[in-house]
Amino acid sequence: MTGAVGFYFYQGLDSELNNQVDREIEASTVLQENAYDNWFSDRLDEVGSLGETISEEGIQFQDNGQISDFLYNQQFEISDQISNLHYVSATSGDVVASSDRNFEGTNFFDSDGPTFDKKAFEQEVQETGQTDRFVLPAQYGSDKMAVAVLLRFPQNDNAVLIGEINTSRDVVGPRIEQSIEGAATGVISEDDNLVIGNKPEISRPNSDDEFIRTETGDNLYAYQQVSSQGSLYVVTETPKSSAFEVRDIVGQNFGLTLVFAFLFLLAVIGTGGWVAIKNLNTLASKAEEMGEGDLDVELETSRKDEIGVLYDEFDKMRGDLKQRISEAEEARNEAESSRKEAEVARAEAEEMSSYLQDRAEEYSEIMRQVGMGDMTRRMTPDGEEESMDTIAEEFNDMIEELEKTTGQLKSYVDEVENAGAEVEQSAETVRDASEQVAESIQKISDDAYGQKERLQVISETMDQVLTELESMATVEGVDLGDALTNLQDIATDINEIAELSEETMAESERVAGAAEEQAAELNEVSEQANDLQRYAEPLRDILGRFETEAEHEFVFSVGPTGGAQSPTSHSPDDE
Prior knowledge:
five-stranded antiparallel beta sheet; alpha+beta; single chain
C-alpha cells in the first residue's frame, strides 16, 4: 500500500516536474530568440550606419580604392564583432571594394574565394524589400557569417555592403546565461544550415509553428522562429540529464523516502513479529508439554491482543482436555468391567449356544422322524433350559393329539367308505320309490283333470236344465218348485266336487314336484356318497403311512340309520 501510494504521488510529481522543464526550455528558447533578434538588429544597424555617415559627411568616392580605404577605417569604429566589410555586386558577386585588400577582385560566387550561395544571396536581395537589410542564412568560407545592407554607391547602385562576422571567436554573439546547465544555443536556416552558434544533431521538424519542441537521444531541442528574420530559427539544445536533474533528484529522494519508510515498516513489523513469534514459541513449547501429558503447565500472559486470546483458548482447551481425560479414564474402567462381564456372558452364551445347538439337532431329528410318519417319537425335557423344555412339552402334546387324530381318521375312513356304500344303496331305493310315487301322482293328476272336465260338462248341462225348468215354471199351472230346489242342490254339489277335484289336482302337482325334488336330492346324495368312497381310499393309503400306538386306534359306528359319530365326541369306553 505504501508503494502504491508513493507511486501515485510520484507520478503526479514527475508529471509536474516534466511540465516545469518544458516551460523552462520554452522560456529559455524565447529569451535566446529575443537576444539573437536584438543582436542581429544591432549588427545590421551598425553596417547600415555607414550609409548615414556617407550622406552626413558628403563623401564623394572617385574610385574603388577610396571605398576600400573608407571601409578599412570604419570597421574599427562600428563594432569589434564585425571583422571585415565587403562591397559586393549583387548581380555578379564580384568584390568591388573591401576593408581587406586581399578580397578585392575576388568573387563570392566562385570557388576560388570564400564560397557564397548565389541563389540564397539573390533570393535574400529580392525578398528584402523595403528593409534593405538581411542576414545570410548560411556560413561561407571558414566560419564566416554575413549581415548585409543594400547601399547605393556612385560606382554601383546595385551593390550590397556585407558585414563579415568571424563566428569562431568566443566574443561573437549575444552573452545570455543558459537557464539549464550544459544547454547550448544556435541559429539555423530553414534548410538546417548553421548561421551562428551550435548546430543541432537533428533536422528541424517540418512545421509552420513558431515554437517546436522535440527530443532525440540524450538531448531536448526547442526551435523558435526569429521574429525579424523569418527564414532563421533559434534552436536550444538541452541535455536531458541536466534538464531532468531536479526531477531525478526529487524522484531519487522520494524513492529513498519510500524505501526508508518501507524499511521502517519492516523494522516495526519485524519487531512486532519477533515479539509475537517469541510468545508463540513459548506457547508452542507449552503445547508440546501438554502433548507429552503435562496438563498442569501455566498458561498466563499479560497481552490483551490476539495472542492473549490464543493463550486463554489454550488454557480453556487444557481444562477441557483434563476433564475429557478424567472422563475417559472412568469410561475405560467401566469398559474394562463391562469387558469382563461380557467375557463371562460370552462364555455362558457359548455354552448355552452349544447346548441349544445339541438340543436343536436332537429335536430336529425327532421332528424329521415324525415328519416321516413315526408318531411314536417324543422329545425328552431335561430341565436345563425352560424354553427348550416348553418346546418339548408342547411338541409332545401336539404329537399326542395328532396321533389320536390320525388313529381316529384311520377308523373313520373305513366307516365313511362303508357308510357311503350304504347311503348310495339307500338313495337308489328311495329314488326308485320316489319315481314310482311321482308316476302314481301323475296318473292321479291326469284322472283328476279328466274328472274335472266331465264335471264341468255336467255342471253346464245342469245349468241349461235349470234354465229351461225356470222358464217352464212361469207357465201357469205347472209346479216345479221342489224339483228346481233339488236340481239346484245337485248343481251346487257338482260345483263343489269340481272345486275339490281342482284342489286334488293342485295338491298332486305339489306332491309330484316334491317327489322330483327329493329324487334330485337323492341323486346329489348318491354323488356325494360316491365321492366319499372315491376319496376314502387314497386317504386311507396316506394315513396308513403313519405309525401310531394301538391304544389310539378307534372304531366308529357310521350308518345310514344311526349316523356317524364325531371323532372328537367319543365315550370313555372307546378310549
